[in-house]
Amino acid sequence: MIRTEEMLLNVGPQHPSTHGVFRIVLKIDGETIIEAQPVIGYLHRGTEKLAENLQYTQIIPYTDRMDYLAAMTNNYVICHAVETMMNLEIPERAEYLRVLVMELGRIASHLVWFGTYLLDIGAMSPFLYAFREREAIIGLLNEISGARLTFNYMRIGGVKWDAPEGWIEKIREFVPYMREQLSGYHDLVSGNEIFLNRVKGVGLYSKEEALDYSLSGANLRCTGISWDLRKDESYSIYDRFSFDVPAFDSGDAWARYQCRMAEIEESLKIVEQAVEQFPENGEIMAKVPKIIKPPKGEAYVRIESPRGEIGCYIASEGKKEPYRLKFRRPSFYNLQILPKLLVGENISNLITILGGIDIVLGEVDG
């Protein structure tokens, strides 16, 4: 009989497969994980406290830096919260532009996840292909916002700029191209025996556990719960589009992979419909005062980001700065189940499970 000793092992914070400055302290017996303790806070910026001394429009760039792979949805949630408090009516053209950039951002975010997840597991080619397609999306978002990652495009009452000439046509051409590439991803990866052996039955949890841990996004839908705020608590103009909410019931890393790949297809459906319905002209900003001062009171709004439910709570005293601001960040909540999933697992499955959750550390520590 082989005798082993318990050992403490640090994974991160400087490690490519931790997807940011994240540290996890493992207690292992041989190759089996006995205990796992996540350590966060290396990236902490204090966004919510800083916001108390900022005007509402000044807070928007800070949201870019929380989930820096989905800056458009972060921009939107703060604007949506303020607009809800002020009872603003957003121009139709601005709403379509918002949906287009958010859904393109969702696809780009899932492409980063797909590429880096396969890289974690040991496949190089999918990463290169995914980033090729992501670069096309980043080019489109750069063209409309002037930035490549931290877009700062949304404004309270609308958007910063109108679509440049020919931009809508470029998106129309991108949709069939992306569908063709997505089919190629499935040919390359989804039926690959090595990949399937790494993800099937790994990181299992039930729908009851998903609800107990307040999981959202693909981490919830992988247990068979078809819940998406774009459809179930529709906001903006999402009720104008026909799309499905992919859900798979095996509750493992394979189901989470299937969810996100299917979500890319559904986002393409939304983008395609938004392009066809796009108004030929119209305003891109509502009439708002130069200094935004929501009335005294409080509001909480929530939307569907690529990682799940992101919420924004604002308490206002009727001043140009919020009295209190709080974000519900999906990565922070989704990460809570990690220690439970790792206990009893072989250490080789650590990165498969962690990568499958799809965290962004700016959102965990923000």
From TrEMBL:
UniProt superkingdom: Bacteria
Compartment(s) of residence: Cell membrane
The UniProt record lists the keyword Oxidoreductase: yes
Pfam families per the UniProt record, alphabetical: Complex1_49kDa
Occurrences of domain NADH-quinone oxidoreductase subunit D (ranges): 120-296
Keywords: Cell membrane, Membrane, NAD, Oxidoreductase, Quinone, Translocase, Transport
Principal location class: membrane
Swiss-Prot/TrEMBL catalytic activity: a quinone + NADH + 5 H(+)(in) = a quinol + NAD(+) + 4 H(+)(out)
SUPFAM superfamilies: HydB/Nqo4-like (SSF56762)
EC number: 7.1.1.-
Record membrane topology: Peripheral membrane protein
Molecular function per GO: NADH dehydrogenase (quinone) (non-electrogenic) activity
UniProt subunit comment: NDH-1 is composed of 14 different subunits. Subunits NuoB, C, D, E, F, and G constitute the peripheral sector of the complex.
The protein's role, per its UniProt record: NDH-1 shuttles electrons from NADH, via FMN and iron-sulfur (Fe-S) centers, to quinones in the respiratory chain. The immediate electron acceptor for the enzyme in this species is believed to be a menaquinone. Couples the redox reaction to proton translocation (for every two electrons transferred, four hydrogen ions are translocated across the cytoplasmic membrane), and thus conserves the redox energy in a proton gradient.
Protein name: NADH-quinone oxidoreductase subunit D
Native species: Fictibacillus terranigra
Lineage of producing organism: Bacteria, Bacillati, Bacillota, Bacilli, Bacillales
